[in-house]
């Protein structure tokens, strides 16, 4: 099913220095905080994934480009945002106020200066409840599996990241669920990309997590990601 883009969106090819993709499912409480922190001159692309709390209208009123992805799934929302982007460099950030998109500026600088091809945010929890124990355990297990699969020594597989749009599209990402962030890293490694990490404060999110708020949600995510790690390397990417 095709995504629906807001009529006021910037047309493809427009001169946006950076686009920030913000997957959104019922994040009306967090949107004002998040959108106020988008760096000046950058475009926020809020990808609504079936909200029922007025998130799309609120995001639009706050100046964001709004895209609708009717197929549920974190990866579906992220990839629709990537396809809707037109800037050379695209960032991704959660829309729940757990991460400050203003901190993406040095990420973009590293990519723009050719120091890295993909920059990831290493989450450093701030305050009680910012990162539950079960979510940390799942992340640690995945980081170890990723190291075994690719050789990358990453300490986090968080959602905050930056890379160039066209090379990202060329990775041919297919996961449309929780495995999308990991598949991006795995295929980037297969393609010989330089992957870097930067520490970012991780705040208690607004509202309940749709993914890692429970043990069940966490391990469903781990299951999705284990499937990604079992994929053979795509030599065509080299």
TrEMBL record:
Residues of the Glycosyltransferase 2-like domain: 20-165
Top-level division of the source organism's lineage: Bacteria
Entry-linked SUPFAM superfamilies: Nucleotide-diphospho-sugar transferases
InterPro entries: Glyco_trans_2-like, Glycosyltransferase_2, Nucleotide-diphossugar_trans
UniProt signal peptide: none
Similarity annotation: Belongs to the glycosyltransferase 2 family.
Protein name per its UniProtKB record: Glycosyltransferase family 2 protein
Native source species: Streptomyces monticola
């Amino acid at each position: 099913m095709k995504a629906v883009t807001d009529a006021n969106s910037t047309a493809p090819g427009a001169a946006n220095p950076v686009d920030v993709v913000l997957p959104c499912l019922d994040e009306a409480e967090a949107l004002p905080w998040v959108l106020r922190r988008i760096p000046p001159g950058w475009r926020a692309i809020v990808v609504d994934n079936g909200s029922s709390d007025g998130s799309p209208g609120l995001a639009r009123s706050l100046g964001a480009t709004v895209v609708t992805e009717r197929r549920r799934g974190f990866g579906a929302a992220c990839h629709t945002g990537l396809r809707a982007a037109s800037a050379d460099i695209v960032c991704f950030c959660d829309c729940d106020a757990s991460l400050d998109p203003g901190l993406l500026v040095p990420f973009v600088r590293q990519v723009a200066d050719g120091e890295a091809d993909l920059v990831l945010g290493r989450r450093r929890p701030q305050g009680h409840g910012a990162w539950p124990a079960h979510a940390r355990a799942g992340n640690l297990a995945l980081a170890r599996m990723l190291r075994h699969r690719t050789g990358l020594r990453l300490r986090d597989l968080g959602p905050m990241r930056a890379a160039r749009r066209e090379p990202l599209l060329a990775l041919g990402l297919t996961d449309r669920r929780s495995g999308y962030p990991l598949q991006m890293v795995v295929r980037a490694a297969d393609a010989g990309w330089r992957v870097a990490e930067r520490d970012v404060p991780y705040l208690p999110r607004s509202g309940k997590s749709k993914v890692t708020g429970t043990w069940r949600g966490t391990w469903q995510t781990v299951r999705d990601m284990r499937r990604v790690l079992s994929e053979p390397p795509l030599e065509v990417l080299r």
